[in-house]
Amino acid sequence: xxxxxxxxxxxxxxxxxxxxxxxxxxxxxxxxxxxxxxxxxxxxxxxxxxxxxxxxxxxxxxxxxxxxxxxxxxxxxxxxxxxxxxxxxxxxxxxxxxxxxxxxxxxxxxxxxxxxxxxxxxxxxxxxx
Length: 129
Fold this sequence. Notes:
Number of strands: 7
Largest sheet: 5 strands, antiparallel
Strand content: 15-25%
Number of helices: 5
Order of helices and strands: EHHEEEEEHEHH
CATH architecture of the largest domain: Roll
CATH topology of the largest domain: Structural Genomics Hypothetical 15.5 Kd Protein In mrcA-pckA Intergenic Region, Chain A
Number of domains: 2
Strand order of the largest sheet: 3-2-5-6-7
Shape: elongated
CATH class of the largest domain: Alpha Beta
């Protein structure tokens, strides 16, 4: 658990298990979905203790405060020591709402019909706006 005083944002996002792979973390940075102290971050941007990290993983916008720096993945229980989750409860509620919109199809029911597809598209379009 060697700590340094600066670490790349893509490594940190991967190490604290916000993204499954470092490549996904780097892609999110390149697409402008990661902000450090309200500025877009490139994957090579260095992170410091006390920085605020905002991550847009639609439909939720997550907010984290950096408490510690880490470059290598640790056990999931240890990861909580490296950041503080400041995501508002309203943002987390969006996950529950979106999950309730999707209908579970019975096994063997096949693909949705054109009419069912239109209804599903209408529901998801209304949610995204």
